[in-house]
Write a structure and sequence with these properties.
Oligomer: single chain
Organism: Silvania confinis
Largest sheet: 7 strands, parallel
Helix content: 25-40%
Bound molecules: glyoxylic acid
Number of strands: 12
Number of helices: 13
Radius of gyration: 22 Å
GO molecular function: glyoxylate reductase (NADPH) activity; hydroxypyruvate reductase [NAD(P)H] activity; NAD binding
Subcellular location: Cytoplasm
Distance between the termini: 22 Å
Strand content: 5-15%
Mean pLDDT: 97
Subunit structure: Homodimer.
Shape: elongated
Protein name: Glyoxylate/hydroxypyruvate reductase B
Low-confidence stretches: none
Structural class: alpha/beta
Length: 324
Protein backbone atom coordinates (compact mmCIF):
# COMPACT_ATOMS: atom_id res chain seq x y z
CA UNK A 1 0.00 0.00 0.00
CA UNK A 2 1.18 3.52 -0.82
CA UNK A 3 1.85 5.90 2.08
CA UNK A 4 -0.89 8.48 2.73
CA UNK A 5 -0.49 12.23 2.36
CA UNK A 6 -2.77 15.23 2.79
CA UNK A 7 -2.88 17.81 -0.01
CA UNK A 8 -4.37 21.18 0.98
CA UNK A 9 -3.80 23.19 -2.19
CA UNK A 10 -4.94 22.59 -5.76
CA UNK A 11 -2.17 21.27 -8.02
CA UNK A 12 -1.99 21.20 -11.82
CA UNK A 13 -3.18 17.78 -13.05
CA UNK A 14 0.28 16.55 -14.04
CA UNK A 15 1.64 17.30 -10.56
CA UNK A 16 -1.34 15.78 -8.78
CA UNK A 17 -0.70 12.68 -10.90
CA UNK A 18 2.98 12.65 -9.91
CA UNK A 19 1.94 12.82 -6.25
CA UNK A 20 -0.60 10.02 -6.75
CA UNK A 21 2.05 7.84 -8.38
CA UNK A 22 3.81 7.82 -5.01
CA UNK A 23 1.09 8.28 -2.44
CA UNK A 24 -2.55 7.83 -1.53
CA UNK A 25 -3.66 11.45 -1.62
CA UNK A 26 -6.47 12.99 0.42
CA UNK A 27 -7.31 16.41 -1.01
CA UNK A 28 -8.76 18.94 1.45
CA UNK A 29 -9.55 22.63 1.03
CA UNK A 30 -7.76 23.88 4.12
CA UNK A 31 -6.38 22.84 7.51
CA UNK A 32 -9.17 24.26 9.69
CA UNK A 33 -10.21 22.23 12.78
CA UNK A 34 -13.51 21.43 10.99
CA UNK A 35 -11.68 20.01 7.98
CA UNK A 36 -9.31 18.02 10.18
CA UNK A 37 -12.25 16.59 12.11
CA UNK A 38 -14.10 15.74 8.91
CA UNK A 39 -11.10 13.77 7.59
CA UNK A 40 -9.83 12.62 11.00
CA UNK A 41 -8.69 9.16 9.83
CA UNK A 42 -6.80 10.53 6.83
CA UNK A 43 -5.03 13.13 8.99
CA UNK A 44 -4.25 10.53 11.64
CA UNK A 45 -2.61 8.15 9.18
CA UNK A 46 -0.89 10.69 6.88
CA UNK A 47 2.91 10.67 6.74
CA UNK A 48 3.07 13.75 4.50
CA UNK A 49 1.44 17.17 4.18
CA UNK A 50 1.62 19.43 1.11
CA UNK A 51 0.18 22.88 0.47
CA UNK A 52 0.65 26.53 1.36
CA UNK A 53 -0.60 29.55 3.31
CA UNK A 54 -2.13 27.68 6.26
CA UNK A 55 -1.01 27.49 9.88
CA UNK A 56 0.78 24.29 10.86
CA UNK A 57 0.89 24.37 14.65
CA UNK A 58 0.87 22.04 17.65
CA UNK A 59 -2.92 21.67 17.55
CA UNK A 60 -2.70 20.30 14.00
CA UNK A 61 0.38 18.17 14.67
CA UNK A 62 -1.43 16.50 17.54
CA UNK A 63 -4.00 15.23 15.06
CA UNK A 64 -1.23 13.87 12.80
CA UNK A 65 0.81 11.45 14.94
CA UNK A 66 2.30 9.66 11.91
CA UNK A 67 3.46 12.79 10.10
CA UNK A 68 7.09 12.64 8.91
CA UNK A 69 7.36 15.45 6.37
CA UNK A 70 5.63 18.69 5.43
CA UNK A 71 6.23 20.47 2.15
CA UNK A 72 5.22 24.08 1.64
CA UNK A 73 4.72 25.67 -1.79
CA UNK A 74 6.57 28.80 -0.67
CA UNK A 75 9.95 30.00 0.39
CA UNK A 76 8.62 31.53 3.62
CA UNK A 77 7.66 29.22 6.46
CA UNK A 78 6.66 31.59 9.27
CA UNK A 79 3.27 29.85 9.38
CA UNK A 80 4.96 26.66 10.63
CA UNK A 81 5.84 25.98 14.26
CA UNK A 82 9.34 24.74 13.46
CA UNK A 83 10.16 23.96 17.09
CA UNK A 84 7.12 21.71 17.34
CA UNK A 85 8.12 20.02 14.06
CA UNK A 86 11.63 19.44 15.38
CA UNK A 87 10.36 17.94 18.63
CA UNK A 88 8.26 15.48 16.64
CA UNK A 89 11.00 14.78 14.08
CA UNK A 90 8.89 16.12 11.21
CA UNK A 91 10.85 17.48 8.24
CA UNK A 92 9.92 20.82 6.69
CA UNK A 93 10.67 21.37 3.00
CA UNK A 94 10.31 24.66 1.09
CA UNK A 95 11.00 26.17 -2.35
CA UNK A 96 13.83 28.69 -1.89
CA UNK A 97 15.33 28.86 -5.37
CA UNK A 98 12.64 28.64 -8.06
CA UNK A 99 10.95 31.96 -7.27
CA UNK A 100 14.00 34.20 -6.87
CA UNK A 101 13.97 35.94 -10.25
CA UNK A 102 10.19 36.41 -10.32
CA UNK A 103 10.11 38.01 -6.86
CA UNK A 104 12.98 40.30 -7.90
CA UNK A 105 10.89 41.31 -10.93
CA UNK A 106 8.01 42.15 -8.58
CA UNK A 107 10.32 44.25 -6.42
CA UNK A 108 11.53 46.17 -9.44
CA UNK A 109 7.89 46.69 -10.49
CA UNK A 110 7.18 48.18 -7.05
CA UNK A 111 10.23 50.44 -7.29
CA UNK A 112 9.26 51.70 -10.73
CA UNK A 113 5.53 52.02 -10.16
CA UNK A 114 5.83 53.86 -6.86
CA UNK A 115 8.53 56.25 -8.12
CA UNK A 116 6.77 57.03 -11.41
CA UNK A 117 3.27 56.86 -9.88
CA UNK A 118 2.30 54.38 -12.60
CA UNK A 119 -0.84 53.03 -10.93
CA UNK A 120 -2.09 56.41 -9.79
CA UNK A 121 -1.73 58.17 -13.13
CA UNK A 122 -3.04 55.19 -15.13
CA UNK A 123 -6.17 55.32 -12.99
CA UNK A 124 -6.49 59.04 -13.71
CA UNK A 125 -6.27 58.33 -17.44
CA UNK A 126 -9.00 55.68 -17.12
CA UNK A 127 -11.12 58.16 -15.18
CA UNK A 128 -10.95 60.57 -18.13
CA UNK A 129 -8.79 63.11 -16.31
CA UNK A 130 -6.12 63.36 -19.05
CA UNK A 131 -7.63 66.32 -20.79
CA UNK A 132 -4.50 68.41 -21.46
CA UNK A 133 -0.73 68.04 -21.48
CA UNK A 134 0.26 66.93 -17.96
CA UNK A 135 1.99 69.21 -15.45
CA UNK A 136 4.22 68.68 -12.40
CA UNK A 137 1.32 67.41 -10.30
CA UNK A 138 1.49 64.23 -12.40
CA UNK A 139 5.30 63.91 -12.33
CA UNK A 140 7.19 61.24 -10.43
CA UNK A 141 10.83 60.86 -9.48
CA UNK A 142 13.72 59.17 -11.27
CA UNK A 143 14.77 55.63 -10.47
CA UNK A 144 18.02 55.32 -12.48
CA UNK A 145 21.10 56.48 -10.64
CA UNK A 146 19.35 56.64 -7.25
CA UNK A 147 20.66 54.78 -4.21
CA UNK A 148 18.99 51.46 -3.49
CA UNK A 149 19.04 50.11 0.07
CA UNK A 150 18.41 46.39 0.38
CA UNK A 151 17.57 45.08 3.83
CA UNK A 152 18.08 41.31 3.67
CA UNK A 153 20.66 40.22 1.12
CA UNK A 154 19.58 36.67 0.32
CA UNK A 155 18.94 35.19 -3.11
CA UNK A 156 16.15 37.65 -3.89
CA UNK A 157 18.16 40.63 -2.66
CA UNK A 158 20.99 39.58 -4.93
CA UNK A 159 18.68 39.28 -7.95
CA UNK A 160 17.27 42.74 -7.20
CA UNK A 161 20.79 44.15 -6.88
CA UNK A 162 21.66 42.71 -10.30
CA UNK A 163 18.68 44.44 -11.92
CA UNK A 164 19.36 47.72 -10.15
CA UNK A 165 23.10 47.74 -10.87
CA UNK A 166 23.13 46.69 -14.51
CA UNK A 167 19.71 47.95 -15.56
CA UNK A 168 19.41 51.19 -13.62
CA UNK A 169 22.94 52.17 -12.66
CA UNK A 170 21.95 52.39 -8.99
CA UNK A 171 24.51 52.48 -6.19
CA UNK A 172 23.58 49.69 -3.75
CA UNK A 173 23.72 49.63 0.03
CA UNK A 174 22.76 46.47 1.84
CA UNK A 175 22.24 45.21 5.33
CA UNK A 176 22.63 41.56 6.22
CA UNK A 177 24.06 39.61 9.12
CA UNK A 178 27.12 38.73 7.09
CA UNK A 179 29.02 40.47 4.34
CA UNK A 180 27.97 39.24 0.90
CA UNK A 181 31.12 38.92 -1.22
CA UNK A 182 29.25 38.18 -4.44
CA UNK A 183 27.03 41.27 -4.08
CA UNK A 184 30.11 43.41 -3.42
CA UNK A 185 32.18 42.00 -6.26
CA UNK A 186 29.48 41.83 -8.94
CA UNK A 187 27.33 44.84 -8.08
CA UNK A 188 29.65 47.03 -6.06
CA UNK A 189 27.21 46.77 -3.14
CA UNK A 190 28.27 48.30 0.19
CA UNK A 191 27.56 46.50 3.46
CA UNK A 192 26.25 48.89 6.11
CA UNK A 193 24.13 49.05 9.22
CA UNK A 194 20.39 49.55 9.05
CA UNK A 195 20.55 53.19 10.16
CA UNK A 196 22.94 54.09 7.35
CA UNK A 197 20.56 52.56 4.82
CA UNK A 198 17.60 54.42 6.33
CA UNK A 199 19.48 57.71 6.21
CA UNK A 200 21.12 57.38 2.79
CA UNK A 201 18.92 55.25 0.54
CA UNK A 202 16.42 56.71 -1.92
CA UNK A 203 14.67 53.34 -2.01
CA UNK A 204 14.55 51.19 1.12
CA UNK A 205 13.65 47.65 0.06
CA UNK A 206 12.80 45.07 2.69
CA UNK A 207 13.19 41.41 1.77
CA UNK A 208 13.22 39.70 5.14
CA UNK A 209 11.57 36.61 6.53
CA UNK A 210 9.31 37.03 9.56
CA UNK A 211 10.96 35.87 12.78
CA UNK A 212 10.89 37.02 16.41
CA UNK A 213 13.93 39.10 15.53
CA UNK A 214 12.44 40.86 12.48
CA UNK A 215 8.91 41.48 13.82
CA UNK A 216 8.28 45.27 13.64
CA UNK A 217 11.93 45.88 12.75
CA UNK A 218 10.74 48.98 10.89
CA UNK A 219 8.58 51.35 12.92
CA UNK A 220 8.17 55.01 13.78
CA UNK A 221 11.81 55.60 14.72
CA UNK A 222 13.03 54.01 11.48
CA UNK A 223 10.65 55.99 9.24
CA UNK A 224 11.81 59.17 10.95
CA UNK A 225 15.37 58.41 9.89
CA UNK A 226 14.49 58.03 6.21
CA UNK A 227 14.75 60.85 3.69
CA UNK A 228 11.52 62.75 3.02
CA UNK A 229 12.00 61.78 -0.62
CA UNK A 230 12.51 58.08 0.20
CA UNK A 231 10.36 55.32 -1.18
CA UNK A 232 9.73 52.33 1.07
CA UNK A 233 9.24 48.89 -0.48
CA UNK A 234 8.24 45.69 1.32
CA UNK A 235 8.01 42.34 -0.44
CA UNK A 236 9.07 40.03 2.39
CA UNK A 237 6.51 39.70 5.16
CA UNK A 238 4.03 42.33 6.35
CA UNK A 239 4.61 42.12 10.12
CA UNK A 240 8.27 43.08 9.69
CA UNK A 241 6.82 46.59 9.47
CA UNK A 242 4.66 48.39 12.02
CA UNK A 243 1.91 49.22 9.54
CA UNK A 244 0.38 51.99 11.67
CA UNK A 245 3.76 53.72 11.80
CA UNK A 246 4.05 53.35 8.02
CA UNK A 247 0.60 54.90 7.52
CA UNK A 248 1.58 57.82 9.77
CA UNK A 249 4.87 58.33 7.95
CA UNK A 250 3.04 58.45 4.61
CA UNK A 251 0.30 60.72 5.91
CA UNK A 252 2.79 63.11 7.53
CA UNK A 253 5.07 63.30 4.50
CA UNK A 254 7.98 61.68 6.36
CA UNK A 255 8.52 59.53 3.29
CA UNK A 256 7.48 60.06 -0.33
CA UNK A 257 5.71 56.80 -1.17
CA UNK A 258 5.46 53.09 -0.50
CA UNK A 259 5.26 50.01 -2.69
CA UNK A 260 3.85 47.06 -0.77
CA UNK A 261 3.27 43.43 -1.70
CA UNK A 262 2.77 42.20 1.88
CA UNK A 263 0.74 43.42 4.85
CA UNK A 264 0.25 42.76 8.53
CA UNK A 265 -3.13 41.26 7.70
CA UNK A 266 -3.70 39.50 4.37
CA UNK A 267 -5.90 39.90 2.46
CA UNK A 268 -5.54 43.61 3.28
CA UNK A 269 -8.87 44.75 4.80
CA UNK A 270 -10.81 47.12 2.53
CA UNK A 271 -10.94 49.55 5.47
CA UNK A 272 -7.13 49.92 5.63
CA UNK A 273 -5.97 53.54 5.57
CA UNK A 274 -3.25 52.42 3.13
CA UNK A 275 -5.92 52.17 0.45
CA UNK A 276 -6.85 55.83 0.85
CA UNK A 277 -3.32 57.08 0.16
CA UNK A 278 -2.49 57.96 -3.46
CA UNK A 279 1.23 57.45 -2.82
CA UNK A 280 0.82 53.76 -1.99
CA UNK A 281 1.06 50.96 -4.52
CA UNK A 282 -0.61 47.98 -2.83
CA UNK A 283 -0.35 44.55 -4.46
CA UNK A 284 -2.12 41.36 -3.33
CA UNK A 285 1.05 39.39 -2.40
CA UNK A 286 1.96 38.62 -6.01
CA UNK A 287 5.72 38.24 -5.40
CA UNK A 288 6.02 34.85 -7.09
CA UNK A 289 2.62 34.85 -8.79
CA UNK A 290 3.31 34.08 -12.43
CA UNK A 291 1.98 30.98 -14.17
CA UNK A 292 5.50 29.69 -14.79
CA UNK A 293 6.89 30.26 -11.33
CA UNK A 294 3.85 29.02 -9.43
CA UNK A 295 3.99 25.83 -11.50
CA UNK A 296 7.69 25.43 -10.78
CA UNK A 297 7.13 26.01 -7.06
CA UNK A 298 4.38 23.39 -6.94
CA UNK A 299 6.57 20.95 -8.89
CA UNK A 300 9.46 21.61 -6.52
CA UNK A 301 7.21 21.07 -3.49
CA UNK A 302 5.97 17.74 -4.87
CA UNK A 303 9.54 16.54 -5.47
CA UNK A 304 10.51 17.84 -2.02
CA UNK A 305 7.84 15.70 -0.37
CA UNK A 306 8.84 12.62 -2.35
CA UNK A 307 12.49 13.23 -1.42
CA UNK A 308 11.84 13.94 2.25
CA UNK A 309 9.75 10.81 2.70
CA UNK A 310 12.56 8.85 1.04
CA UNK A 311 15.01 10.35 3.58
CA UNK A 312 16.65 12.75 1.08
CA UNK A 313 17.15 16.12 2.72
CA UNK A 314 20.28 17.45 1.02
CA UNK A 315 18.38 20.39 -0.49
CA UNK A 316 15.32 22.56 0.26
CA UNK A 317 15.06 21.27 3.83
CA UNK A 318 14.55 23.82 6.62
CA UNK A 319 15.31 21.38 9.45
CA UNK A 320 17.49 18.47 8.28
CA UNK A 321 18.28 17.86 11.96
CA UNK A 322 14.74 16.49 12.29
CA UNK A 323 15.64 13.52 10.11
CA UNK A 324 15.15 10.44 12.27
C1 LIG B 1 5.93 33.96 -0.71
O1 LIG B 1 5.67 34.87 0.00
C2 LIG B 1 6.67 32.80 -0.32
O2 LIG B 1 7.04 32.68 0.86
O3 LIG B 1 6.92 31.95 -1.19
Amino acid sequence: MKPSVILYKALPDSLQQRLEDHFTVTRVNNLSPETVQQHADAFASAVGLLGSSEKVDTALLEKMPNLRATSTISVGYDNFDVEALNERKVLLMHTPTVLTETVADTLMALVLSSARRVVEVAERVKAGEWTKSIGPDWFGIDVHGKTLGIVGMGRIGLALAQRAHFGFNMPILYNARRQHKEAEERFNARHCDLDTILQEADFVCLILPLTDETHHLIGKAQFEKMKKSAIFINAGRGPVVDENALIEALQNGEIYAAGLDVFEQEPLPASSALLTLPNVVALPHIGSATHETRYNMAACAVENLIDALAGKVDKNCVNPQAKP
